[in-house]
């Protein structure tokens, strides 16, 4: 822990942008039986890459956070060793998204997860990740 920083001073990286609606606005729901986490979110204007579109790094961040919190919920203290993302369709700013992460298998100390980013209605898959 850093000097002068207490546990109450920390926050999830996604909450680092101040201002309601400007960055990542999300809620996460974990299903322990299915080892699955669902994140409902909306990308704010501070996350713009190409005009009108969400920056790929912001999409990677929310995927990493979703898979990471799923892994934490399943296995306890973890770190990301590898993150592979296939970007399929650009995400317009302001889009309401569902990001799903699922713990698929365990090999020794390694936990393997998969997930995807899709539109709230489920019709469009924007990205897949492992």
Automatic annotation (TrEMBL):
Residues 52-125 form the Thioesterase domain. It catalyses: dodecanoyl-CoA + H2O = dodecanoate + CoA + H(+); tetradecanoyl-CoA + H2O = tetradecanoate + CoA + H(+); decanoyl-CoA + H2O = decanoate + CoA + H(+); (5Z,8Z,11Z,14Z)-eicosatetraenoyl-CoA + H2O = (5Z,8Z,11Z,14Z)-eicosatetraenoate + CoA + H(+). The keyword Transferase does not apply. GO terms for molecular function: hydrolase activity. It is found in: Cell projection, Ruffle membrane; Cytoplasm; Mitochondrion inner membrane; Mitochondrion intermembrane space. Signal peptide: none annotated. It is a peripheral membrane protein. GO terms for cellular component: mitochondrial inner membrane; mitochondrial intermembrane space; ruffle membrane. It is an enzyme of class 3 (hydrolase). Its EC number is 3.1.2.2. CDD domains: PaaI_thioesterase. One of its GO terms (biological process) is fatty acid metabolic process. InterPro entries: HotDog_dom_sf (IPR029069), THEM4/THEM5_acyl-CoA_thioest (IPR052365), Thioestr_dom (IPR006683). Keywords: Apoptosis, Cell membrane, Cell projection, Cytoplasm, Fatty acid metabolism, Hydrolase, Lipid metabolism, Membrane, Mitochondrion, Mitochondrion inner membrane, Transit peptide. Belongs to the THEM4/THEM5 thioesterase family. This is Acyl-coenzyme A thioesterase THEM4. The gene is Them4.
């Amino acid at each position: 822990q850093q000097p002068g920083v207490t546990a109450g001073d920390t926050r999830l990286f996604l909450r680092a942008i101040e201002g309601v609606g400007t960055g990542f606005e999300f809620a996460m729901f974990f299903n322990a039986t299915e080892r699955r986490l669902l994140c409902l979110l909306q990308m704010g204007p501070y996350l713009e890459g190409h005009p009108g579109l969400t920056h790929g790094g912001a999409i990677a961040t929310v995927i990493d956070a979703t898979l990471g919190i799923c892994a934490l919920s399943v296995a306890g203290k973890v770190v990301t060793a590898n993150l592979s993302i296939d970007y399929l369709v650009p995400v317009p700013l302001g889009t309401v998204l569902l990001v799903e992460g699922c713990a698929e298998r365990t090999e020794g100390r390694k936990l393997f997860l998969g997930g995807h980013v899709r539109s709230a209605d489920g019709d469009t898959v924007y990205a897949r990740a492992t």
